[in-house]
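In full, the data:

***
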Amino acid sequence: MITELDIQEFYKVKPITDQCRNLEVRAVVNGMNPGSVYVDHGTDVTAAMIWIQGQSGFHMVGDPQSESFLTHLETYMINEVEPRLKKLNIDAVEISVENDRWAETLQTIFKKRNLLNDNQYVFEMNYNDAKQSSNLVQDTLIHRIDRDLLESRGFENKAFLEQKIARFWESKEDFLQHGFGYMAEHNHNVISLCFSAFVDGHTHAVDIETLDEYRNKHVGTAVAEAYIEECKRKGVEPYWDCMPENVGSVRLAEKMGMSLSFDYQILWYNIT
């Protein structure tokens, strides 16, 4: 029987998730970032499905032959999970997996669905290879995201910044206590962000976004450089998760001195 754990019970899955390479999973289970945990047994947990709010997706860990998931997951998704996703205006179920055995299990469970799949890349840092070469668009300013900036009314599109922080963190207080980041400003608008989206110990998963009209103008590079420099000072290991098809993100990660550490699969189907 599949059970959703209270946050006070997340410790029950730590023997499984502590071995997971995906930082986002560990960050949720450790209570750092928002999410939910669904397990195959309320007491003797052998497998779990982690909802990662910041990614709007799930991740499977543990035994891919868990009888409870094999028997009940599809029904549970239809009756319990998919209605919640629809209320969040999410129209697809995305599930990432740590190995091919889980991918095969999901193909079996959702055999009636049109289950699609793709790969995701994770880059990690080699500071010796870092390169810096910003050439900013004129009148662009780089700011550290601190309390004064988050409380400032000086940006016309401040909602862009606020919504990004809220997607990954329970509150701005949590972000300020555990994460950090930088933004680029042009004409009183936030045009690019690079910040800690997930945190597990001394490793921070990076989220970076630049408004469409400012891409290929070096602003993403500038905020990434500022972020990486602070990582160096703090002894933080940056963790960069992106799609292989996102050539710009891959190139920027490599430009920052990062190299491909591992990849994993994402499977998804549309909610009907």
Summary: The first strand starts at residue 3 and ends at 4. The mean pLDDT is 93.
